[in-house]
Design goal:
The chain is of the alpha+beta class. It has one domain. The chain contains 5 helices and 8 strands, in the order E-E-E-E-E-E-H-E-E-H-H-H-H. The chain has helices spanning about 75-80, 105-115, 115-125, 130-135, 140-160; strands at about 10, 15-25, 35-40, 50, 55, 65-70, 85-95, 100-105. Strand 2 (about 15-25) and strand 3 form a beta hairpin.
Length: about 160
């Protein structure tokens, strides 16, 4: 898994940790390399504490989604939502006797954990019809503009969820 640019300080089980992120590299159904989001916690000394996501070794999900490791981290869903890290989608994946819900990462978190170049490469993994090059030809700031629009939409979602819309 590739490492990231930053971290977010969080509390989990009454202790301080750093939320970090990276990408799992997997192949899609055509054999092309694709990226999936991976999240983990590190202790204040930089030692890995716990993986928060699971990878099925295959390209599943949609842009911005990941599967929390509900099999090994019992309170993961509450942690993700209370810390505004991510929220559930309607997607899921079953492996063995466990059903893993798909979560959508907050664009605010994505921006803190990854560089613009990493986010652009990640977005291109989901550009199945090569629309990015045509749509944003000559606009080097297209990733930043899309992130701003995603953040606005996410903020509206949170406000509506909290009854402030």
């Amino acid at each position: 898994m590739s490492d990231n640019k930053g971290f977010i300080q969080v509390r989990y089980n009454e202790e301080d940790f750093y939320l970090k992120g990276g990408f799992y590299e997997v192949q899609d159904w055509l054999g092309a390399e694709k990226r999936l989001i991976g999240l983990w916690l590190e202790d204040p000394y930089g030692e890995p504490y716990m993986d928060l996501t699971t990878s099925f070794g295959e390209f599943v999900g949609a842009y911005g989604t990941f599967f929390p490791d509900v099999n090994n981290v019992s309170s993961i869903e509450q942690f993700l939502q209370e810390n505004l890290i991510a929220f559930p989608t309607q997607g899921q994946k079953t492996s063995g006797f466990v059903t893993y819900p798909a979560y959508r990462i907050s664009p605010h978190v994505l921006e803190k954990l990854f560089t613009i170049e990493e986010i652009e490469a990640y977005k291109r993994d989901y550009d199945f019809y090569d629309q990015i090059d045509e749509k944003y030809k000559g606009n080097p700031d297209w990733v930043k503009q899309e992130l701003e629009a995603e953040k606005k939409g996410f903020d509206e979602f949170i406000a509506a969820r909290q009854g402030r819309a």
